[in-house]
Structure formats: structure tokens, C-alpha cells
Design a protein that fits this description.
heterodimer; A: about 325 residues; alpha/beta; globular; B: about 450 residues; alpha+beta; MetI-like fold; Jelly Rolls; 2 domains; 16 helices; 9 strands; about 55% helix
Chain lengths: ~325, ~450
Amino acid sequence: MMAAAPLLEIEDLGLSYATEQGTLRAVDGVDLRLHRNEALAVLGESGCGKSSLAKTLLRTLPRNAYPPTGQLRLDGRDVLGLPEERFRREVRWVRIALVMQAAMNALNPVVRVGEQVAEPLRIHHRASRRQARQRAAEAFEEVGIPTDFLRRYPHELSGGMRQRAVLAMALVTEPDLVLLDEPTSALDVLTQASIMNVLKRIKHERGVSFVFITHDVATASELADRVALMYAGQVVEAASARAFFSEPAHPYSRLLMASVPRLYQEQPPSSIPGRPPSLLDPPAGCRFAERCPWAFERCSEPPPMIPCGERRQARCWLHHSPGGAR
Amino acid sequence: MTPWLQGLARLRQYPSALAGLGIIALLVAMAVYAVTAIPYSEARELWRGGEAWQDLPTNASPVWTDRLLGGNAPRTIRVATDDVVMEQERYEGVRLQRAVLPVDFPYGGFPQEINLFVESQFDERQPFVRLTWRTPDGESIPLDARRVGESERISISQDRQLESRLGFTPQVGLFTDAEPGADDPQVRQGTYELVIEAIQFEETATLDANLVVYGQVHGLFGTDHKRRDLTVALLWGTPVALAFGLLAAVGTTLTTLIIAATGVWFGGWVDAVIQRLTEINIILPLLPILVMVGTLYSTSIWLMLGVVVVLGIFSAGIKMYRSMLLPIREAPYIEAARAYGAGNARIILRYLVPRILPVLIPTFVTLIPTYVFLEASLAVLGLGDPVLPTWGKILNDAQAQSALYHGFYYWVLAPAALLMLTGLGFAMLGFALDRIFNPRLRNV
């Protein structure tokens, strides 16, 4: 439907960690597509591999990670095979920026905020100290921090201010894609709301794409154009936000949506019994089968991503035959 | 306000730190004064000894020791013909020049030596000089009479003839009215005069004489066996000691820190190599290696500094810094820095190293005197820089001349006191800084 090549294409991406108990497959066969000025929410509970996905995109993997497998293309160009130094110079913060989880600790405690926000510019644009400070001040205004905060140290900022500063740092080099790794999870509701407003405004004004990684269905629904739901290292459903939130296709999506508390809802939110499988030794078939009330014989085979609508797939055998549920 | 400035401001709460800072300021002032008052090349030249020191007494005590004991030891008196009127008479073909040099002698002891330095300019015929000593009572004692060359030292106190005439060594006999050969001659105080009469055979010939009556005491710190004023070495020892201590401390701390951070950041075989090198280096003894380098190669202070720094690179500090840096490596802001494209060098130098610097400041400050002492120890062992005046060199000279056996305690006291003062100053500052920057010792 879109003529231009997608900004980001992820194909069959896999990532494993070496642990003492064995090899842990954190990301397993993930396919995702993101167009310009699109916001993709990667939803999932903790440990489902969504942060590992972000780390793979920016190659900030911990030391015990094996090299990722699969395809990763930016504007049609492969970035997974790029040598480390070229990746650092050409991709990090030039194309993809990251707003880290736990922004509280993402700032160096002994460096002034203004200086830190300007760091990427100093590195990538070889900006002079003055230029960098000027741009940092602009970025601060954009995310709604008074510019006199530039001279402060991280501990002198409130949590919301720090999160904004980290966001300013991600925007300062004008990347095409910003990864938001749980950007609001440690904040109170009011601060969350104001940060989300800033993000929406930036998306509207700047035309950046977002990959918004969160476990919070409510905040995801505010920003996302598309949603990818992850479960046990795999994407189980990829759909437009509207379709996903109104009519979830995968059983896990359905149960997840049912567990979200809503205003004006009669029955109390339900929980999903059981727990996700261990990624050290995932089940051979559908990974959700064990907890799935709709499970049937076919579920012992691993399901592929099955199209079930316009730009929409679900990893569930129920969608395989036209006679399946829905 | 930055944490650094806050830390420094907190120093005010520690009187010991202020005292330490005061001592360090004093030493720095001494060093600055030494370097500006006596340039490096001049200091080296002076310390070589020789003519520059010819009118200073040998092994003279500091003036204050005499004051302290209530004595009235003689000071050095210098009188030159330039200070008095030179009378001149002409005869046929010759000129007779006459100068009277007054020697005001109010002291309670005899001088150490008496020398007359004579300089004259002539074409062919040397002037003839006759010297007469006049006591305060007007008694005249004839001294030497001789031709003098262009530059000559007439050593009155070593005139054997005069000694036998007086019955005392000249420096005693000329200043006493005791009977010749008396056991306990007393000083006769008053104004003595040396009369110089010169016969010049040429119209343009000149004569300048400079009488030095050497005292028993000199200056603030006394002199050594080569008549050198110890002040020069004590003053110049300050910049040398501070520079050596500071450079060695900076050199070893910084390189060690950067290497430790490099090992921590890259991990793997880089870390392993650094750790093994450190373990080998820790068991190598520093002093014997320095002694070997000094004996076999060169005792230049800068070479020694280089060896100290090189051997200090893979020191035990690496282990300590490594343990402090390992948790910092895992900090989210380091990961963030990696994500926004900071290179390895940037992460090591701008993120890892500055994080542990505050904790290192006290160690660093207390490390400075360690190296000052090391340099002095080398000098005492005879491995000091041969041309540079340093505190260690003074101690080395004092030891070689058996200063303590001869009672020249001031020779050992002054450099030792300065060394101790240096240690004290830096230690007091360092301990206070430790209490400020080291979180475990911080007062809540």
C-alpha cells in the first residue's frame, strides 16, 4: 500500500544469550516492517525479548550475547553485517536513537545534563562546544525543559525532567527512527501523560518513526499506528493499532486485552493463568498453547505468521483455515 | 556548584587540611622563588662549587645556632679597595698607591681564615705589594711583601712565617693581644686595619684588593665543605622534589588508571594480558632496579623519573582500579553512551576514568611525598643526579663528610626537616581529602 521502501525491515531476526544454564533464545524469528513517520508499539510482558530486540537494533548487546542472525535493513540497506566502527559512525544516533529503559540511570551522574544531551552532536557532527550547546538548548525547548536546566546535574532533575532530557538527547541528532524502551514505565501517571504528549507532538512535527517498546497496553494505544505483540521471543501478532485494539486476532492478544482494566466496564479484568515458557527450552509447538483456552491438536506444531487481514498476521493455527474461529 | 568545588569548599572544615595546604603553599612559594631567583643553569653551575663561593667560610654553622647558644661568633667581613679612598703619590717612573682597609671586629671568637684577593692589570711589570696589619692600639705588624700577578689569592692565615713570628696561627695572632704562645688567647675587639701599599711601574696599571676575614657562622643554613651556601641546595631542592614527586605521581596514577580502564572496557585477552603483566610487575622490587639503572646507565634525575613511572604503570593500583571500574562498566549510562555512538576511547577517558577520579585524589596526594622520599633515598645512596642540587644530595654530602661526627648537625637537620615537612603537608591534605571524597569515611 505504501510505495516507498520501508524504513526498517526486520526479517527472521534471532538472538541468543549464553547463560550458565545453557543457550537462551531471547528473540526468535521476528519479522517486522516499519515505514516512515509510523509508530510501532512492541508490546509484551517482561522477559518476552522486546528489550533484546531494541538492543539488537542498536547493537548494544551484553557480552554474553551471540551475534544476531537474520536480516536487518534500514532503507533497504543491510546493517547487521556492517563492521562495528562503521555501524557506530553511520547508524548509532545518526539513523537510530534510543530512549533507554530506566532513564534515571541513563544519564552520567557527574556530567551536566546539557553537556550530555549535546554529546551525540559532539561525536557525530563534530560540533563545536557552542553549537552543541545551542542545539541542546533547542532540543530542551522541544521536549519542554526550561533551558536553564542545561547547567544542572542529573540528580538535580525530577524523574520526568530526566526522561525528557533523555528524549532530548535522542532527538538532538535528528535520527529517522527513535527506539523508546519503556520510556514511561518508571513515571507517575501525570508525567507519563505529558511525556506521551511530547512524543505525539514530535511525531507529528518532525515526522520521525518510533518503535515504542512497552508492557503497558494503555500507553501503547496512545501513540501507536501499528502494534506487534511479542510472546516468549516471538511476534505473535502484528496489526494496525486500530484493528489490534478493537479486534485482537491471536488468543494471547485477546486475553491480554481482556486483562486491561477499562473505565465503564462491567466485569473486572481477567488474568491469564500460567506463566510463559522458559526460553532456555521453549516448547516445540505453539508457545502459548499451554495457556490457551482455544488450543487444539495442531498447536503441537510451530505455527507460522498467518495473514488474517490487511497488513495483519497472527502466529496461530486458528487463522489457518477459513473455518477457524473468526 | 560542581561536586569538585563542593569537596574543596568542605576542606575548610578540616584544620589539618588547611595546615597541610599552608605547608604546601610554603613549599611552592620556595620553589617558585628558587626558580626565579636562581635560574636552572645558574643553580647547576653554582652547585659545582669553585670561585663563586671563595669568600664564604667552610663548614660554617647557621647564624641562628650561634644566637641560640648566646654566642658572639664572628661573621664574615669583606672589605674592598673600592670601598675606601686609594691615595696615590708619584715618584720618578713609579706610582705609590696606598689603601687602608678597616676591619671592624666586635666578635667573641677568632675568624676561620683570612684571605686577600688581589687583581691587577698591567702590561709587563707586576706591581709590588706590601701589607701591614694595624691593631686597634696602633701596633703595626708587617705581613707579606711580594709581587702580585693578574689575579692572586694571598692567604694571610696560612703564612707560616707570620705564624712563627706571632706564636699563634695568623687568624688568632692578628686578633689578640695575648702573649705569644699563651694557652687561651682572648679576642681583642676593635677596629683593625690592613694597609696595602702598592708600587706600580706602569702608568695605566691598576690594583684592586678584596680582604675577606672568614667568620664561623654563615647565613640561615650554613655552608658545606666546599664553602657552598646550603641555602642554594635547600631552595633548589624544593622545585626538584616537588616536580619529581608530582610528575611521578601523575605519571603513574594516570597511566595506571587509563590502562586499568582499558582492560576493564575491552575485557577478554586485553584484560588478561594487563592482569598478568601487573602480577609480574608487582613482585619486581623497585629500589634494586633503580640502583642498577643508576649504577650501570645514568643517574640523571629525569631518567630515574622515567624508570619510576614505567615501573609504576603496571602497579598494584591496576587491581584496585579494576575492581572499582567493573561495576561502572555495567552502568546504564555507559550502555547509553555506547548506543549514541561514543567510541571506545571516549568511553574510557570521558566516562570510566572520571568516575573514580574523586576517590583517587587522596591517594594521589599522599603518593607525592612517597616519590619525593624515593628521590632523596636514591640521592643518599649516591645515585642522585650528579649536577642538580637536591635535598638528598645535601644529605649524601653530609654523610660522606661525616657531618654528624664533626658536629655539623645543621647540615643534616635542614634537608631532613624539609623532607619531613613535605611529607607532613601532603599527608595532612591527603587524609582530609580522603575523608571528603571517600564515601565510606564521609561524616553524615
